[in-house]
Design goal:
By secondary structure, the chain is an alpha/beta fold. It contains three helices and twelve strands. The longest helix has 14 residues. It is globular, with a radius of gyration of 15 Å.
């Protein structure tokens, strides 16, 4: 996919992007810490996700279920369906509305779905993922790659899978995000 075909989603900040240290391009929002591999995931969530943000972006590698490991976000010491309770500290963040996975391949497997559902329920946020690769490109400030063509998955705060149209209507109606 060439850069000329990539569409963006603009984010109404403030936002926080947790950028893994081995991802080439960081997501640039108000808070954009770079997370070293091996950082305890629970500390990362407690220390790097401030109160008052509207969006949390995990900019890292994502992996589907395999026989040797579960589906996970490869950031910190990994986040899986089995340790999603580490998101508890941000459940009280009343402004946080959407958690975005800027991570590949977290949509098709049952473990990936359970991770998304568990995170949505634990945090009371919408969760956005996709089943295919996310291009690692230099992004405009306060933007993400629009995952429309990446087999997207959207989950509401109750963990129910919803349509793109329902999700985008929610974001635009609440001025949280919009197509650019």
């Amino acid at each position: 996919m060439g850069n000329s075909k990539i569409r963006w989603v603009g984010l109404q900040g403030p936002s926080v992007a947790l950028n893994l240290d081995n991802v080439t391009n960081t997501v640039r929002v108000k808070y954009s810490p770079v997370i070293k591999a091996g950082t305890p995931s629970d500390e990362m969530i407690k220390d790097k996700v401030p109160q008052g943000v509207n969006h949390l972006i995990f900019n890292c590698h994502g992996f589907e279920d395999k026989s040797s490991y579960p589906a996970h976000l490869a950031i910190g010491t990994t986040i899986t369906k089995d340790n999603v309770n580490l998101m508890e500290p941000i459940a009280s963040n009343m402004t946080l509305r959407v958690i975005w996975f800027s991570a590949c391949n977290l949509g098709l497997s049952s473990g990936a779905t359970e991770l998304c559902v568990g995170m949505a329920k634990k945090t009371g946020c919408y969760v956005v993922s996709q089943a295919s690769a996310v291009p690692d490109v230099n992004l405009p400030i306060d933007c993400l790659v629009d995952n429309k063509d990446m087999m997207p998955y959207y989950f509401n705060p109750d963990g129910k899978k919803i349509s793109r149209k329902e999700f985008m209507t929610y974001g635009i109606d609440n001025t949280l995000f919009w197509p650019v």
